[in-house]
Automatic annotation (TrEMBL):
The lineage of its organism: Bacteria, Pseudomonadati, Pseudomonadota, Gammaproteobacteria, Lysobacterales. Keywords: Membrane, Transmembrane, Transmembrane helix. The chain crosses the membrane at residues 37-62, 74-93, 99-121, 133-150. It holds the Pfam family DMT_YdcZ. GO terms for cellular component: plasma membrane. This is DMT family transporter. It comes from Luteimonas terrae. It comes from the Bacteria. InterPro entries: YdcZ.
Length: 153
């Protein structure tokens, strides 16, 4: 395996390890303030400020207003989906626990990714085959074993 691939995989795992912490922190902010919606807003505000600072420090050029205005409107869904993820994580962690929420999110991400790959949404199609379906089934089974919906809380 190429060293850049290993480094990329390690970074992905580390970032993935931070997501349940983000959800727990946001849930605590929501519990101590005005709920999940406010906590999600605060999380996005802090994140926006952090990214703005990185843009300034790295002197990353901004697109022209013409380029910005020419973007297809559906591309704005990325920000809405991010906000929905943060809000739902903030809302669901107290109900499902960090592990349960993340497992279910990963199962949903895998199902969505398989569909997007299969139909080639924004990339070359990568058809779903038996091995990929078996992997998705194992993830779904793993999520069920973590969440254990058959047990009462």
């Amino acid at each position: 395996m190429h060293h850049w691939l290993l480094l990329s995989a390690a970074v992905a795992v580390l970032v993935g390890m931070l997501l349940p912490l983000q959800a727990l922190l946001n849930a605590r902010v929501g519990a101590l303030t005005h709920g999940a919606l406010f906590a999600s807003f605060l999380s996005f505000a802090v994140g926006t400020l952090a990214l703005a600072l990185v843009l300034v420090v790295t002197r990353t050029p901004l697109p022209s207003l013409r380029t910005f205005g020419a973007l297809p409107p559906w591309l704005w869904l990325g920000g809405l989906i991010g906000a929905l993820f943060v809000f739902c994580g903030t809302l669901l962690v107290p109900r499902l626990g960090a592990a349960g929420m993340i497992c279910l999110v990963v199962a949903g991400q895998l199902a969505g990714s398989l569909l997007l790959d299969h139909f080639g949404v924004l990339s070359q199609p990568r058809p779903v085959d038996a091995m990929r379906l078996a992997g998705a089934a194992l993830v779904a089974i793993g999520a069920l074993l973590v969440v254990r919906p058959w047990q009462s809380a």
